[in-house]
Design a protein that fits this description.
Distance between the termini: 45 Å
Shape: flat
Radius of gyration: 17 Å
Helix content: 55-70%
Strand content: 5-15%
Largest sheet: 2 strands, antiparallel
Order of helices and strands: HEEHH
Structural class: mainly alpha
Number of strands: 2
């Protein structure tokens, strides 16, 4: 996108919804210490996924949220400030929660 192009209100709403839902999904994985996955057609049971796959899923969800919020914040501040604020705002609360829950 060129610096002079302004995104539409629908695009801004879509990116904000993506960021909010990704943040919510990441917190569900962090708070639940994992997530349930459906095996699809192969079985009728839900499987609880924890450990490294759950950490990867939480990081991917939170990364998606940080990118969405950085894009939204970039409209009113510099790129570096927007990325820094979005990363701190998205990744610090789960890190603090996990630190306090562990000790």
């Amino acid at each position: 996108m060129t610096p002079h192009a302004r995104p539409s209100k629908a695009a801004i709403a879509a990116v904000a919804a993506l960021g909010a839902l990704s943040l919510f999904g990441g917190w569900i994985v962090v708070y639940g210490r994992g997530f349930y996955a459906d095996l699809g057609k192969r079985g009728k049971h839900m499987v609880f996924v924890d450990g490294a796959p759950a950490v990867l899923m939480a990081v991917l969800q939170l990364l998606c949220a940080a990118l969405a919020f950085a894009w939204l914040l970039e409209r009113c501040m510099s790129t570096r400030a927007a990325v820094g604020l979005a990363c701190v705002g998205v990744f610090m609360p789960p890190a603090i929660y996990l630190y306090l829950a562990a000790g």
